[in-house]
Design brief:
This protein has 284 residues and is α/β, with parallel strands linked by helices. It has helices spanning 3-19, 33-41, 75-79, 97-103, 117-130, 134-155, 182-190, 207-213, 228-235, 244-248, 256-260, 266-282, and strands at 28-31, 48-51, 85-89, 107-111, 162-170, 173-177, 193-194, 202-205, 217-221, 252-254.
Length: 284
């Protein structure tokens, strides 16, 4: 059967079926690990019928049917789960997906992503409204706010320190977290200077800039380091090995989804960073 015809038929059937659904019959496609994690934190996971391939936390999310990478979802794949809603992170795509889903009667909500604590709270509030859990969302925001405030007080007495967050490396160089990233927000709340703060987003940082910044401590996404050999390899990077952090060679591994995305685990990530900075100072 013609692929276009299949899409049209799926759209027509879904439009008819969703017209009679109540709020309690929501069938949600979650697109983006942060979105999925927030839905679970709001105890609304029973609404989720499928998610994208980046949705692997909490553990229950790993059992969800996966639709592929959230930037490259297919209309047929989404509609095969007969959803009433798609809740997606900002980069969800492709663009052709949205009009096709809306034509099929699916309510599409693509949520903006301000990459800091304020953005996380906004995301939780927005998702809470969509899944009819505004009270739970407010409670979660208050819990996160209170814990972050406590942790920021703990960090106030720490001596100034410069850190670098490494996302990945390649032949082009080290890709690091600059301004407008979750690591930058975490560093700000921990009172740390980001060695890459003059850059924006996640970009390759040249060796000369790394040497000039001379980070005291390095944080690395968990998907980048999985063995002691990879730790040693990173410490021998031409730019890293002559920095203070490289000579100490104790990079701090951060769980990727909580350190790079807007996660309700933001306080846990912040606490991890503060403890590692305290340990750095304790070494003298």
């Amino acid at each position: 059967m013609n692929k276009h015809l299949i899409v049209v038929i799926c759209m027509s059937m879904l439009a008819l079926s969703t017209a009679a659904l109540s709020h309690s019959d929501m069938r949600v496609i979650s697109s983006g690990g942060s979105i999925t994690e927030v839905i679970y934190a709001l105890d609304k996971q029973d609404l989720v019928v499928a998610a994208d391939s980046t949705s692997h936390y909490p553990r229950g999310a790993t059992a969800l049917p996966k639709l592929g990478y959230f930037r490259q979802l297919s209309t047929e794949g989404v509609l095969s789960f007969h959803p009433t809603h798609l809740i997606g992170a900002q980069a969800t795509g492709p663009e052709t997906l949205f009009p096709e889903l809306k034509a099929a009667g699916v309510e599409v909500s693509i949520l903006g992503e301000q990459r800091d604590l304020a953005g996380l709270k906004q995301l939780i509030s927005q998702v809470g409204e969509i899944v009819h859990a505004p009270v739970k969302a407010k409670e979660l925001i208050e819990q996160i706010d209170n814990r972050v405030s406590q942790l920021k007080k703990q960090a106030q007495g720490l001596k100034p320190i410069t850190a670098l967050f490494i996302l990945s490396d390649s032949e082009r160089g080290l890709t690091v977290a600059g301004a407008n990233t979750v690591p930058q927000a975490l560093f700000n709340d921990a009172g740390i200077t980001n060695a890459a703060q003059q850059m924006r987003d996640y970009k390759v940082m040249d060796n000369e800039s790394i040497l000039a910044a001379n980070p005291d401590i390095i944080f690395v996404a968990s998907h980048r380091i999985r063995s002691d050999q990879e730790v040693q390899s990173l410490c021998q990077h031409p730019a890293i090995k002559v920095t203070t952090a490289g000579q100490i060679c104790k990079p701090v591994v951060m769980e990727s989804s909580s350190a790079l995305g807007l996660s309700p685990r933001y306080p846990e990530a912040l606490e991890h960073i503060i403890k590692k900075v305290q340990a750095f100072h304790a070494r003298g």
